[in-house]
Amino acid sequence: MARGFHGRRWLAILPGLLLVCSSVQAAEITDVIDAADEDVYDGKIVEDLFDFHIEPTFKQTYEQAKITREANCTGGADRCQNEDTILINKELRYQRVVNELDLEFELSIYKDLEFHVLLPIIFSDTTSLKYAKNAGKACEFDIDPYNPKCVDETNSTVDPSDNRIVADAGDGNDFTTYRYFDVPDENDKWLDGPGRGGLGDLTFGIDWSPFNDQRDQLHEDPWFRNNGRSTLTLGFDYTAPTAAVMKADPKNENVGRGVHELGLHVATSRRFNYVDPYMQFSFALPIPTDSIFKDYGGGQERVGPGPSGDLTFGIEIVPWEQANADFQQKFIIDLRGHFTYVGEGRDFGPFFDALGSSACQSKTLAEVQPGGASPECGWLAEKWSNAGFENLRAIDQYSASYDPNHTLKDDGLTSYEGYGRFGASLGFNIQPIQYVQIRAGLGLDHNQEHFLTFGKAGTDVRGRVDIEQNNPSAGSEPNDSAAKDGTVSFDDIKERNPVYNPTYDSVGSRFRIEEWTVFTWNVGLAFQF
User: Fold this and answer.
1) Best label site of 93, 173, 203, 305, fewest CB within 10 Å?
2) Coil, strand, or helix at residue 438?
3) Number of helices and strands (H, E) in the chain?
């Protein structure tokens, strides 16, 4: 069964193993190859003992978006004259280009039951960032310094100038001018991540059509006394972490996601002569491995990517189709739309490769502290898990027993806010001869704007009691027997989130992605025996 015009059915050729190629009267999204079955052509029954497909599809995906960031604005300032508020300032432009060849192998098992394997071959996968400009118009630093409509080192909160860092370090206040990674100074030059490529994670699946009433038609006219053909298909897919996992390292070019993903889908279609409307609901549950998605304990609320659900609906238009025992031809136009919701989680994001190549990686705690050699890298130490403690529950980050020369390392993962995705696509399926199909398609998706850095401070699991009941000024300490107090205490190792970084996860400092569009085109062949 094909899950889409660019989906998981791809190429096939196994000469001599098949007797005939089944006629298709169900929508591709519900079609399942079968075996030990019979086909009907011109009212004649033809034995169909075995089916096998191999289908290659080349696909290119191009993503682009604008990345913005919250900024606290105090009442009386130029941009928030009346009250304290949080502004949204532009920061970066983001793009990602993926070129891949997807190979799917489909094997018939029994009537309306198929087994399939999907192997993605990633030729290139590159993520790039650059300063946000003014949509091709001139920048206005001199005209309006408080709203220049362009970003460079003079106003960037990602890669500030050395002068701004020195000024902040010497003013005696808390240091906040962090440099997360270097952005090229040249006009419109991109910061490119490593050129990732290789074999992707394998997917194994089974599809079954428990209801397929095209079997009931034995008349020479396939639509005789019947105004429609219904098909119901159920499927299960498992994506295994077979590929080497991506790591935040400029030398790492792997493409594996490091998750076990379980997928369920149910699809239905009903063919009415020249049209075939269909609908599918699918659900995916990623289960992270510990290769990169670490569970540090404490108040960590997310370990890996969130689950997702998708509703797809569309219609196939079949303006031409010819089928007999010796020769099958057809032409299909596939129009579809979909809505997907991606639950919040922790995953590879637009900053993953940039953080991995940051000059701050491998700094020591002594270097990034105020007064150290690299205070602009202080953000690295703000995330508790970056410190690399072997036992986070037994030692506090600022304990005197901690080695200040310990090397700090960030995994590049960020916690993101849940979001929706809307999309539409147009596909063409042409079968000029019996065993070969030609497929092509275009797709356009829009992801809703959401926070890219959305970590929670922690989880409230217990309250506090006074250290000395007769001396309230002595303070309080966490106590397992005390009821929850509705707050998360940063000095409580059971409540504090080890992967929360207040420099970009706290309200007023979070990064946000907007105008995120995804364009996809694909072309492929299907050899079906």
Assistant:
1) 173
2) strand
3) 5, 21
Identify whether the C-beta of residue 91 lies closer than 8 Å to the C-beta of residue 69.
yes
* Structure tokens, 333: 């136009």
Instruction: Provide the Cα torsion 192, 193, 196, 202; round to 10°.
Output: -120
- Residue 164, SS3 per DSSP: helix
Indicate the pLDDT class of residue 94, thresholds 50, 70 and 90. very high
SS (H, E, C) 243-292: CCECCCCCCCCCCECCEEEEEEEEEEEEEECCEEEEEEEEEEEEEECCCC
Contact in structure between 441 and 336 (CB atoms under 8 Å): no
DSSP annotation string for 333-358: EEEEEEEEEE--EEE--TTHHHHHT-
Please give the structure tokens belonging to residue 432. Answer: 């000029």
The closest alpha carbon to 418, from 307, 264, 285, belongs to 307
Cα-Cα end-to-end distance for the chain: 14
Average model confidence (pLDDT) across the chain: 84
Closest CA to 284 of 298, 302, 305, 300: 305
Q: Which two tokens stand for residue 239?
A: 């994506």
Place of tokens 């898990």: 385
- In percent, the amount of the chain with pLDDT more than 90 equals 53
Tally of residues, the chain: 529
Q: Is it the case that residue 137 has pLDDT exceeding 90? A: no
